[in-house]
Write a structure and sequence with these properties.
single chain, mainly alpha, 0% strand
Length: 116
């Protein structure tokens, strides 16, 4: 048994309409109401998803690359470089042999005249 869609809730003045109008604006609430008038729950879900997450987005690698290069060509390479340097330094200084070597080099550099 299929339940009917409560159009009065999606209509202007209804609680769902008011909630959508407050959250996404009255135009969005009208679009969801129009979808509810079709009687198709999938149309309502599509209208809600479009309002929540925006329309269709092309997720292809090429379009993402072109969008990034045209909008900010240095953002990703600099972020990637920063991440790699951060990981590299943190991994190096977590190694006890490297820390010991750094201490030996610093001691030899500052005290080489006294030691030799």
């Amino acid at each position: 048994m299929a339940s009917t869609i409560p159009l009065e809730r999606y209509a202007p003045g209804g609680d769902i309409f008011a909630s959508l109008a407050q959250k996404y604006g009255p135009d969005a609430a009208e679009r969801v109401y129009s979808a509810a008038q079709t009687g198709d729950r999938a149309a309502i879900s599509d209208a809600l998803a479009t309002e929540r997450f925006g329309g269709f987005r092309d997720d292809s690698t090429l379009s993402n690359f072109v969008k990034q290069i045209t909008s900010d060509p240095l953002a990703a390479p600099l972020d990637s470089l920063n991440d790699q340097l951060q990981k590299g330094f943190s991994n190096v200084f977590r190694n006890p042999f490297v820390v010991g070597l750094v201490i030996v080099v610093v001691v030899l550099f500052f005290y080489r005249k006294k030691l030799l």
